[in-house]
């Protein structure tokens, strides 16, 4: 896909939504996930960075639409840092909803606002090494400290899928005992507070901006609630375009998408093409 060709959605709902968005960009919200959508998946989560084309594309698009939001499982401040979102001309009103919407960073203020922390995270953090040890201490398994959550990554384990499968039960037990939930993702099991998800975060953002159309792009299971939110908006008469970044690893998402792109490079090209296609 070249940077100035807009791909055609494969579904009628997607094509209708894109037509509305092109006709009425100033009342459209564009919301995107971070890892796997703006940033290529890498083995070490601390090395993830936005694709070089992603921020320029968002910055070109943002002044032409009602709002641009990044909705991520990352802490908001981490996504801002890894994305390079602060101080970018054009992204003066960018909103980053971190921890699935429990945190919010506004480019306009540079500040993060957050829900109160859940006490179960401290208890889970303390018990986690013992639980991993008893489950077989899979070599290469890595704990990501996320502040208001902890995540166990298996991508660098000798057998990532076997480690993921073996740890799912014990980590679910641990989370449940302390009032947390397990959020499964691409070779990651996150133990986090319940009550917020990307769907709720997206709906609140759309309500706040008063948008009349929406684009959402994601790549992982944690994006399914946002897809469901767009489907609900569509049922209520608000056109929505669902974009899946990467097609094979998370088929539950690509099966519901109007447009499937092959990862962050194509997502960045799509956002740039969208910016080119709508008037200033
Ligand atoms: O909601 P997202 O922005 O997609 O964040 C979801 C999780 O992404 C990160 O993990 C994923 O990306 C890593 C870096 O590419 C990769 O190594 C890992 O296998 C993926 O699951 C991040 O580390 C998590 O905290 C996020 O919740």
TrEMBL record:
Gene Ontology annotations of biological process type: trehalose biosynthetic process
EC number per UniProt: 3.1.3.12
Keyword entries, A-Z: Hydrolase, Magnesium, Metal-binding
Annotated metabolic or biological route of this protein: Glycan biosynthesis; trehalose biosynthesis
Catalytic activity: alpha,alpha-trehalose 6-phosphate + H2O = alpha,alpha-trehalose + phosphate
GO molecular function terms listed in the Swiss-Prot or TrEMBL record: metal ion binding; trehalose-phosphatase activity
Cofactor(s) of this protein: Mg(2+)
The protein's role, per its UniProt record: Removes the phosphate from trehalose 6-phosphate to produce free trehalose.
Recorded family membership: Belongs to the trehalose phosphatase family.
Protein name stated in the entry: Trehalose 6-phosphate phosphatase
Organism: Streptomyces roseolilacinus
């Amino acid at each position: 896909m070249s940077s100035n060709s807009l791909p055609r959605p494969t579904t009628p709902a997607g094509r209708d939504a894109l037509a509305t968005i092109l006709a009425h960009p100033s009342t459209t919200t564009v919301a995107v996930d971070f890892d796997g959508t703006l940033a290529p998946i890498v083995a070490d989560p601390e090395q993830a960075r936005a694709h070089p084309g992603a921020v320029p594309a968002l910055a070109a698009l943002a002044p032409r639409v009602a709002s641009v939001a990044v909705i991520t499982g990352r802490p908001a401040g981490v996504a801002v840092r890894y994305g390079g979102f602060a101080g970018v001309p054009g992204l003066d009103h960018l909103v980053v909803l971190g921890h699935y919407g429990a945190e919010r960073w506004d480019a306009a203020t540079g500040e993060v606002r957050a829900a109160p922390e859940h006490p179960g995270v401290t208890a889970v953090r303390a018990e986690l090494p013992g639980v991993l040890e008893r489950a077989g201490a899979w070599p290469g398994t890595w704990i990501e400290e996320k502040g208001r959550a902890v995540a166990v990554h298996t991508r660098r384990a000798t057998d990532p899928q076997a480690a993921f499968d073996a740890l799912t039960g014990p980590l679910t037990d641990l989370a449940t005992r302390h009032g947390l939930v397990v959020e499964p993702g691409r070779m990651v099991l996150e133990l986090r507070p319940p009550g917020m998800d990307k769907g709720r975060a997206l709906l609140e953002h759309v309500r706040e901006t008063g948008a009349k159309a929406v684009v959402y792009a994601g790549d992982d299971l944690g994006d399914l609630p946002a897809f469901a939110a767009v489907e609900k908006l569509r049922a209520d008469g608000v056109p929505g375009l669902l974009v899946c970044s990467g097609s094979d690893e998370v088929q539950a998402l690509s099966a519901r998408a109007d447009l499937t792109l092959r990862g962050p490079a194509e997502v960045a090209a799509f956002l740039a093409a969208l910016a080119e296609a709508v008037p200033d």
